[in-house]
Amino acid sequence: xxxxxxxATEKSVGKLLxxxxxxxxxxxxxxxxxxxxxxxxxxxxxxxxxxKKLESKMVKEKPKGKIGIAHTRWATHGKPSxxxxxxxxSNNRVFIVHNGIIENYVALKEQLLKKGYKFNSQTDSxxxxxQLDFFLNxxxxxxxxxxxxxxxxxxxxxVAAIDLKNESxxxxxxxxxxxxxxxxxxxxxxxxxxxxxxxxxNEFVFLEDGDVAEVSAKEYKILDKNQKRAIRxxxxxxxxxxxxxxxxxxxxxxxxxxxxxxxxxxxxxxxxGGEDVLENIFGEGSNKLLSKVERIQIVAAGTSLHAGRVxxxxxxxxxxxxxxxDYASEYRYKNPYVDKNTLLLxxxxxxxxxxxxxxxxxxxxxxxxxxxTICNVPTSSLARESDFVLLTNAGPEIGVASTKAFTTQLTxxxxxxLSLAKARKLNPxxxxxxxxxxxxxxxKITESLELKPKIIKIAKEIAKKDNALFLGRGxxxxxAQEGSLKLKEISYIxxxxxxxxxxxxxxxxxxxxxxxxxxxxxxxxxAEKLISxxxxxxxxxxxxxxxxxxxxxxxxxxxxxxxxxECDFLLTPILYTVPLQILSYEVALLRGTDxxxxxxxxxxxxxx
Length: 608
Ligand code: M6R
Hints:
Blueprint: E1 3-9, H1 14-24, E2 31-37, E3 42-48, H2 51-61, E4 67-73, E5 88-90, E6 94-102, H3 105-114, H4 126-137, H5 142-152, E7 155-163, E8 166-175, E9 180-184, E10 187-191, E11 203-206, E12 212-215, E13 220-223, E14 229-230, E15 235-236, H6 252-258, H7 260-268, E16 272-273, E17 276-277, H8 286-292, E18 295-300, H9 302-319, E19 323-327, H10 328-331, E20 342-348, H11 354-364, E21 370-375, H12 381-385, E22 388-391, H13 404-423, H14 428-449, H15 452-462, E23 467-472, H16 477-491, E24 494-499, E25 516-520, H17 527-539, E26 543-547, E27 561-562, H18 572-591
Parallel strand pairs: 18-19, 18-20, 20-21, 21-22, 23-24, 23-25, 25-26, 26-27
Antiparallel strand pairs: 1-4, 1-10, 2-3, 2-4, 5-6, 6-7, 7-8, 8-12, 9-10, 9-11, 11-15, 12-13, 13-14, 16-17
Helix pairs in contact: 1-2, 4-5, 7-13, 7-14, 8-13, 9-13, 9-16, 13-14, 14-18, 15-18, 16-18
């Protein structure tokens, strides 16, 4: 969502704050701002749009300061504008940056208005600055003020603040929104994402819910939720900015599509051996837990939910287990029934998606057998708070559209399926076959990447359209959903996905020569039925593009067919995803959209 960074060093911190904002820009990019303590005053610069605009302003105005805070925003309360950009200020004294949502902001704002405070933005964040100013005027020191503020706020927040009357410290406060400290010999830093501090330090301290902190260039002091001095563990994380470069690709999304063979190898590394999946790959004791599982509850959002939908098919077919699957944003509000021995499975690239994290926290209070997460970010809240974790090890994914995160999630979910089958003593031969197919998968993905020239030709036709339909059957329906999400997200073409058999129950009315239909047609037991569905589209003049080998005798023009390499049927959903990713990317390229940072979106959705 938004990104926060703060720094205290012996030199001016303006440049490093902006560099940090660039590294977090994928989290939000509506507006950006910085506040730098210049001893006599605080330089306060904000701009609408991306960090580049803020940087130009800074180059012109040359603010200097050894203490500073900065922010890149994804609008929640109040439209993207300069007034709504952070840092927010009160009485030209207190400057704050905030991630998250203050749920009781209406009541708190009312109280502050009565006290004479004027609001210059439509955000829920500005009140934090005014409330701190109020406590300071009542005689509190900043650390006390921020602790008092914590008692008033409801919701999720990560906050960094500076005070004009205190030139040597910045202050932090966290509840349900990620915030960590970075320490080094050259200074102290804080950020909502360790990537922002790449190349500055590799020693991090994770703040916990209810923590407040006072930080100078040399030291920091943390008070926990009970106002007691807290000593938190130092975690070493090697974040190199190299992994965050485009390495010659035009966009991060393109780079991440091409990284998939290596990313999948990394997901498999150390997890399979001989003809089976290895023991306890989800952590010590995980096999014991898996042997007790009788039902699975999946909770996830967006692309990660699509991965869950594919996995639900695998759990049933290979491990004989029933699965319930819910949108993370819905799950907690439906009073879910928890059956005996149900495993709570969350899936998330970032591990910080507020809805998914909320679901995990809710589930921990219910009668689940345990919680397991498939996640890409080892330091994320989801990875730290779940009982068991399987990291996808895909490396940082920066493009807002999820690509390698999805195919590695599917790979990890197949490892989970095999582990469950093994724990239940099921299908040993099939397990051996799938393990072999997993080993061959990176090579198959590399082959499918070579289909790009053909896909570009199809992209040229789709780029001219306003709508598109994606069709799949069975385990390919979630892949069709993923293809349609990718297309709408980065090209802004309206796209929908249907199980092909549903067409005649309504959507067929949409078919005419202006409606491209992209169908996933693997050779499987549903192929014949699918072909009949596609004939219905053809008969009504729909423009058909078929991915897969089952459409051989449909008399389609070769240029509208994309044949994929042979692959074990159980893994075909992973393989069929790749041409759909390339298609969306090429369509977006032709339409000239902002591929890595599509409008209105953010990489990590840390608000509900
Ligand atoms: O980080 P998560 O996997 O929890 O994120 C969930 C969704 O926000 C995410 O998959 C989103 O749908 C992607 N932008 C899709 O490409």
